[in-house]
Amino acid sequence: MTDLTDLTIAEALSAMKSKKISAEELTKAYIKKTEEGRKYNAYVLETPEVALQAAKVADENYAKGTERALEGIPMGIKDLFCTKGIRTTACSHIIDNFVPQYESTVTQNLLNAGVGFLGKLNMDEFAMGGSNETSYFGPVINPWSKDVDLVPGGSSGGSAAAVAAKMCAAATGTDTGGSIRQPAAFCGITGIKPTYGRCSRYGIMAFASSLDQAGPMAKDVKDCALLLNVMAGHDEKDSTSSRKDVPDFTKVLGQDVKGLKIGIPQEYRPQGLNKEIEQAWDKAIAMLKERGAEIVDISLPHTKYALPVYYIIAPAEASSNLARYDGVRFGERVDGAHLDDLYINTRTQGFGKEVKRRIMVGTYVLSAGYYDAYYVKAQKVRRLIQNDFKNAFEKCDVILTPTSPTEAFPIGDKTMVENPINMYLNDVFTVSVNLAGLPALSLPIGLSAKGLPLGMQLIGKAFDEETVFKTAYALEQDAAFKRI
Ligand code: GLN
Hints:
The protein is an alpha/beta fold. The chain has a domain at 4-256: Amidase signature (AS) domain (Amidase signature (AS) enzymes). It contains 16 helices and eleven strands. The protein has an eleven-stranded mixed sheet, sandwiched between helices. The chain is globular, with a radius of gyration of 21 Å. Residues 127-130, 155, 175-179, 207, 314, 427 line the site of glutamine.
């Protein structure tokens, strides 16, 4: 029999429906892969018993013909999503014993659709990072690594590695500045950050509330569409959650892209752009052209300000969101002689280096005297970045860019570790999308000379995930990327 973990979600659902396989068999196949793949450090908690229980229910539902949308699909969950009764840590020492009393809306939606949870996935601490190296539980190894251990990208590094190594059928991710798309690109999988407001943020530990969005990470475009169908939707528990109807995102897959206008932003092709990334981009452009799409040059003139704006706004919001981890309201308490000492000891020992750096930067840009010069200014430039996209979308339907300026790099890479700015630069193609609240998907387009996956990003108009999915599906057919 073929390896069941090779099946996409779409294939597994039809195999279960026609009783060729059972949910229990499928779940056991993934549990086996999870055990074999422990060397990658993708899971920080395995919950095989939870997944098997869900599989039992799933098989009963298939027998009765009452199966739900994703009945019997075993998934991994990024450890930023609160899961009722299952330890949730944000991969931080400060809450590494936290067992939530409630379920996040996105994971509840998945449970309601018949998904089983295989466990909680590793990530950068509080989702701050681009390599999964800031996790309290140690780095994740990219399954594409050959002679040296490579990062899987971040912050959803455990999610991307687990999907790539077939340790789950799909995973949840969150994306504040690229954390779904960049790890998807580094690990040769597909992931979409939906429009801000599409998925509820309720029960997802907050990093930067005006930028955070949850989304699916999966083997292919169709699986992402199937997952987003279930994950998205209005939620009264999140005041920024959209009331817009959620269409069936699979409906558009396979539709013609002829006549579609594809925007190519000149600012994303700076002098010195990695040649292989540039060639992959040109290849993707050629594929869409071949299918009759129209290639349009566009300009996003404020792109050069996107990183500085992001690295002001994200830490500002983070410093405020993380104030609750004080050892009194939340967080592992480290006592002290006075209340101030208690706060200082708790936060000094509880948070890692990168999180503390963000809290310092965020507190600084919000402090009296600097607030106008940094935070308010950044908000103004954020609007200009949003306007850039608005203007660009008068000329095109969807924008195509590389996902990341590099392929996966080695764990402990000196240039990244010693200079955090270099790590931040890796987010150059992804952060604008969050600042503008737009949907964007990353899919693998080919391999570099070193045999590592390269990802392309498709950016859509707000609430137009459908055009993104349609274009991605066409590219996916042409790229014929081979998964591990
Ligand atoms: N790499 C970016 C950062 O470190 C994005 C993180 C994210 O999207 N959660 O902030």
